[in-house]
Sequence to fold (228 residues):
Amino acid sequence: MADRAWAIVLGAGLEQKLASGADTAFLSLSSRPAIAHLMCAVEACRELDGLVVVVAPDRLDMPQAMRLRFGITKLRAVRPGTDRRVSNLAQALETFEEDVKWAVVLETARPTVSASAISDTLKVAARTGAASIADCISDPVMLVSGRTTRRLDAKVQAWVLRSPRAYRVDLLRKALALAARKRLDGPDESAWVEAAGGVIRTLPPARPPVHLRTADDLSIAALLLSQP
Fold:
């Protein structure tokens, strides 16, 4: 990919916490914090030449310590986060240089992302402006609304969006402006991107994705991250 691309690592926000309320960013997984695994993946990805990290205001010095400890050269900014995803993404985009055309969104609650997964996602995103690693749900799916349920048509595939996600910067900015205007918020930005006219292409994960919610998830993530 010839266009410049930067990564955003979200280490703040309600969706970056365990069910117990603990932040995932600095939990130790296989001898290093979750956020460090993502920073190292960004460093190893040839398509990325910049990194912006969003963390809790009382942890702003920690990513700089990770930079020194793990030899991270691509860190461009560390921003104080809030509980709202829309404001965290908007803050990160404010630090992007004008000629950066692509943004890759990573989350500390999903720390098992590899450099190759980032590269593959960017390649797929180049076709429509947006892409995400995703899992196809092969089991029967029921749609529930209040007391009403109906089975999803077997001909329709249901996919769970994972991480990483890649977006054209102009499309992501448009999506965030729409979310801010309509006072939307939530655990991911995909609905805003689609409402802004984006089409999100999907690709399967190369390794089992893990979303950190419980202590058991920490053990699984640590095991996966300990493998080459």
The chain has one domain: 4-225. The chain has a mean pLDDT of 90. The radius of gyration is 17 Å. The first helix runs from residue 34 to 44.
